[in-house]
Design goal:
It is built from 6 helices and 39 strands. It is mainly beta and 726 residues long. Among the domains are: 92 residues, Sandwich (Immunoglobulin-like); 104 residues, Immunoglobulin-like, CATH 2.60.40.60; 100 residues, Cadherins (Immunoglobulin-like), CATH 2.60.40; 93 residues, Cadherins (Immunoglobulin-like). Strand 38 and strand 39 form a beta hairpin.
């Protein structure tokens, strides 16, 4: 057991993992006839095309490891023999590596020899066989053994008749599924005629019996599409004029829907569509085709039989888009029509009569979005009130309507819906202008009427005088559809004359308006202008009645009264506000300067002040305009106004808190005026036991103070200037 090499195997998938040592013992006899026990290493497998290089395959270890170490080496094909440098080994560790990608189709296995030597080169173990097997990957495509296979079968052969066998090969390992082959026919038309065995490659006839005439299929509506080929054989030299064929369609195409040309490379006849076919009109054609050489035969050549072939063409039904029988589709609606009014009933047809399909409708390019369509019936109606006709250019509106089917693939047909917006007679005619001037010696006035509606609900207009006594002095003479001549009968006095007129349009039904024409009769100068302008009243421009004029004048007077009342109230409010800020009349202002003839006096100089407010604060609350306390401009609106007057504390020891509370209330009170009258204290009594506060440190401050400017303040400050001046 000790005379052996130990191999530690690792997985081949590129992720090293520990594996148990594999030890196989067998007996062999040496030259002396003694039985010796040796180690056998099982084959090591590695996949071809392995890309993670270098790749660890196995590690060799000897149990006769000397204190100085063991040197390992390998030899054989793939190491020091061709192909070289595929495998390598680390001398000290015994790790064997794969250095290049392997190709199983070139080398499917490698047999190497492994050696274990001491440092002096003396073998420690007998050489051991190391076999590396290359595992197959599916990296080769199957190949047919020849480019073309030819088979023959008689016309009308029974289904399942053997035609030919195709053969192919694969370079992958035949013992694996990588070399397993599967045969199939790609051409759809050929699959209808022949069947192939997937495993063996045998081709046999299909269930339908063979017909020598060629069978082709083409989709409808494909003008220019190639239908199929008509192959021919000619024994002349390929490519020469004697070899080229000429095809002609003799029968089966009365409309000229097909064309046939010669393929210059294969000499086959190419059948194509000269016109688009319609499956619903005709879905089958049977063409009789003849072929001959483009160059005439030599006279010595045997006369051949006429070459004819029959081509049967089937037309495939494809989905076609729906279509509208009318385009543009016309509809109409009256202006001002409410939502839900029917505009048009659009209907589309599906040309695919052999396919059960459904159609649904929708609108496109409807920018104003005042129309809607029922998706099932195609009924178009209004979803909003129709705007006036004048808002549409040309009185019409165009929108695209779509009809879509549920075929495969779904297709859509388009038509234009042209909607005419009809004019509605919703405006009566009126005179323009409604006030005129007439010279007392003039012939009359030419009156003009207009209408906001369009034809046929506008002119010609009808003019009549109103049934009132004042119209007996006037007559009307029609001049055209929009003008009439108003003339007085005899002399009319100068001044304002109100002439009622009845105007009607030509609508169905006609609309009538009664309008008052204000005519100012005056004496005119030589140029035809009134010498004394007589106003027809302020509302005459609109031809207003007397009652309407009175309503307007009353409204104006009422408005003026309201404006005057607001101005008076605002003036009174401002006066009261100014009075409250000043605390009374101008005579009560406290910015006057008292005339003192002598120094001293202190609190006894009280002639300019009313001390009753100090003695009885409850009887003299602070003044405020309109019964509300004044507020500073910087005061927040939500600030609570302090309650006055404040009560004296019952305990003299609380006087300090009382003073601080008053100071805080004065700082935060939004209603206090600029002067500090909000703080009212009790009367302190007559006289003062203390000296003048101005004498404190006055000796120090007066040395640096210059009081010469008091001389410039007038006679009232002359005494101060004498006391404090130099």
């Amino acid at each position: 057991v000790q005379n052996a090499l130990l191999f530690h195997l690792r997985l081949i998938n590129g992720t090293p993992v520990s594996c148990p040592s594999l030890e196989f013992l067998y007996d062999r006899r040496d030259s002396s006839g003694r039985v010796k026990r040796a180690w056998v290493i099982p084959p090591i497998s590695v996949s071809e095309n392995h890309k993670r290089l270098p790749h660890l395959l196995v590690q060799i270890k000897s149990d006769k490891q000397q204190p100085g170490g063991v040197i390992y080496s390998i030899k054989g094909p793939g190491v020091d023999e061709e192909p070289k440098d595929i495998f390598s080994i680390e001398k000290l560790s015994g790790k064997v590596y794969l250095n290049t990608m392997l190709d199983r189709e070139k080398n499917n296995r490698f047999r190497l020899k492994a050696f274990a030597l001491d440092l002096s080169g003396v073998p420690l173990e007998d050489p051991t066989d190391l076999e590396i097997v290359v595992m197959d990957q599916n990296d080769n495509r199957p190949l047919f053994r020849q480019k073309a296979f030819t088979g023959r079968v008689v016309e009308g052969a029974a289904p399942g008749t053997f035609v030919m066998k195709v053969e192919a090969s694969d370079a992958d390992d035949p013992e694996t599924d990588n070399a397993a082959l599967k045969f199939s026919i790609l051409e759809p038309k050929a699959r209808d005629v022949f069947r192939i065995d997937e495993a063996s490659g045998e081709i046999r006839t299909a269930e339908v019996a063979l017909d020598r005439e060629f069978s082709m299929e083409v989709p409808e509506n494909r003008r220019g599409a190639v239908v199929g080929r008509v192959p021919v054989q000619d024994k002349d030299f390929p490519g020469s004029p004697n070899w080229l064929a000429k095809f002609t369609i003799l029968e089966g195409d009365p409309e000229g829907a097909f064309a046939i040309q010669t393929d210059p490379l294969t000499n086959d006849g190419l059948i194509s569509l000269a016109k688009a076919l319609d499956y619903e009109e005709r879905n089958r054609f049977e063409l009789l085709i003849s072929v001959q050489n483009q160059s005439p035969l030599e006279l010595t050549a045997p006369k051949p039989a006429r070459s004819l072939a029959t081509a049967r063409v089937r037309v495939a039904d494809v989905n076609e888009a729906p279509f509208f029988k009318e385009n543009p589709w016309k509809g109409s609606v009256s202006e001002g029509a409410p939502p839900g009014t029917q505009v048009a009933h659009c209907h589309a047809s599906d040309p695919d009569t052999h396919q059960a399909q459904e159609l649904w409708y929708s609108l496109a390019s409807d920018q104003d979005r005042w129309l809607e369509v029922d998706p099932e019936s195609g009924l178009v109606q209004t979803r909003l009130t129709v705007p006036p006709r004048a808002t549409f250019p040309g009185g019409g509106y165009a929108v695209r309507i779509l009809a879509s089917d549920n075929g495969t693939p779904p297709l859509t047909g388009t038509a234009t819906l042209s909607v005419e917006v009809l004019e509605v007679n919703d405006h009566a005619p009126f005179l323009l202008p409604a006030a005129r001037e007439l010279c007392s010696r003039g012939d009359g006035l030419l009156l003009t009427a207009t209408d906001e509606d369009l034809a046929p609900h506008a002119e010609p207009f009808s003019f009549r005088l109103g049934p009132t006594p004042m119209t007996g002095n006037w007559t009307l003479s029609r001049t055209n559809g929009t003008h009439v001549l108003l003339r007085p009968q005899g002399e009319v006095p100068e001044g304002l004359h109100v002439v009622p007129l009845l105007l009607s349009d030509s609508g169905n039904p006609p609309l009538q308006r009664e309008q008052l024409l204000n005519v100012s009769v005056c004496e005119c100068d030589e140029w035809g202008s009134c010498r004394i302008q007589v106003a027809a009243v302020a509302g005459a421009v609109a031809g207003l009645s007397f009652g309407a004029l009175m309503v307007i004048l009353s409204s104006v007077v009422l408005l003026l009264c309201l404006v005057l009342l607001v101005a008076t109230w605002e003036r009174a409010r401002r006066q009261a506000f100014r009075k409250g800020l000043l605390g009374g009349s101008q005579d009560d202002l406290r910015d006057n300067v008292l005339n003192y003839n002598e120094q001293g006096g202190g609190e006894e100089d009280q002639d300019a002040y009313d001390l009753n407010q100090l003695r009885n604060p409850d009887l003299f609350p602070p003044p405020s305009p309109l019964g509300k306390p004044l507020r500073r401009r910087d005061a927040p609106y939500a600030f609570a106004v302090p309650q006055f007057p404040r009560r004296m504390p019952s305990c003299p020891s609380d006087i300090e808190d009382f003073i601080h509370e008053g100071l805080e209330a004065a700082d935060s009170d939004p209603s206090v005026p600029p002067y500090d009258t909000a703080l009212i204290y009790d009367f302190e009594g007559d006289g003062s036991a203390g000296g003048s506060l101005s004498s404190i440190l006055s000796s120090v401050a007066d040395q640096d103070q210059d009081y010469d400017y008091l001389n410039d303040w007038g006679p009232r400050f002359r005494r101060l200037a004498e006391l404090y001046g130099n």
